[in-house]
Amino acid sequence: MQRLLMILFFLPIILSLLMVVLFEMGVLPSGVWAGSGQKEFVCLVVMELLTICCIPLSLRLFKYKKVAEALKGDDAQALRALQRWGSVRLNVLGVLLVVNVLFYYLFVHAAFCYMAVIVFLSLFFIYPSLDRCMTETKGDEKV
Length: 143
Hints:
Blueprint: H1 2-24, H2 37-60, H3 65-71, H4 75-107, H5 110-123, H6 130-138
Helix pairs in contact: 1-4, 2-4, 2-5, 4-5
């Protein structure tokens, strides 16, 4: 379980770094959608709304009643719930990171870069360390 969560944590970061290298070296063409104003506007608004909504959702996911109750079950059930809900929140932020980096290079619009940096920094607040996993499954009310 720990290994899967660590893979889900590092995979979007590695994919984003790979995209940065490929776009910066000219292997992939950047700015191919730069002239399409309406497409850029729609993508920007959608990604801004998704970023604004999904970051707090991912950071607070384990505090919601349904998820918190699933994490407080018996050991086997709590570990399955931790893997499921931990994967959900890592995937939400990971997909946001990769899509924001991709849109930055497709549109060459700085807002996508700023959102990617914000999502990247948010990922470290849900780093799936063993101590954090144990704390979140034990249901510590003061966390």
